[in-house]
Design goal:
Elements lengths: L1 H19 L4 H26 L5 H25 L3
Length: 83
């Protein structure tokens, strides 16, 4: 639902910024931190309710991707504060 549309919108903004050469700024980073946090909650619920025990590698990769996304945007946020 809403999380999927937020990810699609973020992807379109990222591609647009690469093609047209504009900066996305700190507001985008903060919004992506919120979206990544929501993705972690969604993926955790999905793993708990829909993954069988023998699919632990796929479940771990799904959660790792969400945590890595959150880490990337938190890192971007703290790096942008130095400017």
């Amino acid at each position: 639902g809403l999380l999927r549309w937020a990810m699609i919108g973020a992807l379109l903004l990222i591609v647009s910024s690469v093609l047209f050469g504009f900066q996305l700024g700190t507001l985008f980073t903060v919004l992506m931190i919120v979206v990544a946090g929501a993705a972690i909650l969604y993926d955790t619920s999905n793993v708990l309710h829909h993954y069988p025990a023998d699919r632990h590698v796929g479940a771990a990769l799904q959660l790792f991707a969400s945590v890595a996304l959150l880490f990337w945007y938190v890192l971007q946020f703290f790096m942008s504060r130095d400017d």
